Amino acid sequence: MLVSALAAEPNAEFAVSAAQMKTLGVTLLKLEQPAAIAGIAYAAKVTLPPGQEQMVSAPVAGVVDQLLVGEQQAVKAGQPLLRLNSPQFGEMQLKLLEAASRARLSQQTLQREKALLTEGIIPERRVQEAEAAAQDDAARQRQAEAALRLAGIDAGSIRRIAAGGTVQDGVVVRARAAGVVLGVDIKPGQRVQEADALLRLASLQTLWLDIAMPADRQPATLLKDNKAAAIEIVGRDAVAMPLSVGAMVSDSQTVTLRARVTRGADRLRPGEVVQARVPFAANAAGWALPLQALARQDDQAYVFVRTDKGFIARPVSVASSAGASVQVTGELKPGQEVATASVIALKAAWQGKSGGDK
């Protein structure tokens, strides 16, 4: 039986031999260095921030002549995505040709009228009328150019068309920004109308996590110190930092903690569900121990530290807990050994309830 030498007082030493430890099944954990313990893992959905997803729509009505990219393909800014054959596009180019021709003629007329006014041959009213006509024709040309820019035509091609270049029968739709093709909504030979959806692109450089956390975990406190609030994605070399906490509590009594992925975004995909380990608020360094290593006397927690003769009961404070692990602070040192099993038997010996010999 165990020998109880002293009453149940903090830091009281009581004798336990190696043979008794083996009989009772007492196991020891050697303390190393204080450290913050990992938090609890919650389900998190990978989402795209607003503004990173773009819908590529048909700039003009026409027929899909050729698809130049496929789903999940990475594209660069300005890269061709598809080609449309469009009579409407031909009409737009014709309008620009006509508007540019009239604008050039108006400018020539204006210059001639100004020369005649200088020679005193015509009244000033003729020059004013020529200026107004030149301004109107220039505005029509700018409008025709703007329509072609909306259709995805580059500035160089617009200038060539305005200068009398060859009219094209098809328009090439290009990516406005770099990204990944998330979906293709059309196929070759399909007729589309203006503004019909063609492709969906998204930039995956920045991703968010929507983490469903119990409302009573008070995740808002994580936003106070970003250095202590790094969120790890379980099984991925990726880390996120908290951004905001939802104002509403769901029917399942959870709130949404939103975090921005700061490392490893290339290892995640929008829409997938992962496990995110959320640290505890104010998770300062302490001693990480199994929950069963703690013994409680009234409102105080204790751990049993191995000595040459037996054990000493050391009072500790529980800083945080995560499932079967706790983080404690107290008069503990690296290299000491703490009991992690049969703690109830050690507590009985410490309190003098073993009934053994004195």
Model description:
The protein is 23% helix and 34% strand. The protein is built from five helices and 22 strands. It has helices at residues 18-24, 87-118, 124-150, 155-162, 343-350, and strands spanning 13-15, 28-30, 40-47, 53-57, 62-67, 74-75, 80-85, 170-174, 179-184, 191-192, 197-202, 208-214, 231-233, 239-245, 254-263, 273-278, 287-290, 295-297, 300-306, 310-322, 325-330, 337-339. The strands form five sheets. Strands 1, 17, 18, 19, 20 and 21 form a six-stranded antiparallel sheet that branches. Strands 3-12-15-14-13-16 form a six-stranded antiparallel beta barrel. A four-stranded antiparallel sheet has the order 4-11-9-6, with no helix packed on it. A hairpin with a 2-residue loop joins strand 20 (310-322) and strand 21. The longest helix is centred in the first third of the chain and has 32 residues, at 87-118. The N and C termini lie close together (10 Å).
